[in-house]
Amino acid sequence: GVINVTAISGSVTPTIGSKATTGPVYTDSPVTLTAITAVGQYHFTLPQNCLRYVKLFYATTTSATVTSWLTSETRG
């Protein structure tokens, strides 16, 4: 996946939530990624135990402008 941060003041901490069935995705078994403190593009890999439906949640200390997407690209 990719997280693109175009503006930030403080930090943003992404968390991945996943679920096997349709409906709201909650963080029953959340995976927290490293906190982001600078503008840039950040790549992440979904965990092996990630279920079919995925959602990213963000906790911020002040403000941030963030876009994110999942890719089928394998980085190595």
Structural summary, described in words:
This protein has strands spanning 2-9, 12-19, 31-32, 40-43, 53-60, 63-69. It has 76 residues and is mainly beta. A 3-stranded antiparallel β-sheet has the order 4-1-6, with no helix packed on it. It is globular.
Give the radius of gyration: 13 Å
Oligomer: single chain
Element-level helix/strand string: EEEEEE
Largest sheet: 3 strands, antiparallel
Helix content: under 10%
Unreliable stretches: none
Instruction: Tally the helices.
Output: 0
In short, what is this structure?
This protein has strands at residues 2-9, 12-19, 31-32, 40-43, 53-60, 63-69. It is an all-beta fold and 76 residues long.
Q: What layout of secondary structure does this protein have?
A:
Blueprint: E1 2-9, E2 12-19, E3 31-32, E4 40-43, E5 53-60, E6 63-69
Antiparallel strand pairs: 1-4, 1-6, 2-3, 2-5
Defining traits:
76 residues, mainly beta, three-stranded antiparallel beta sheet, 6 strands, 49% strand
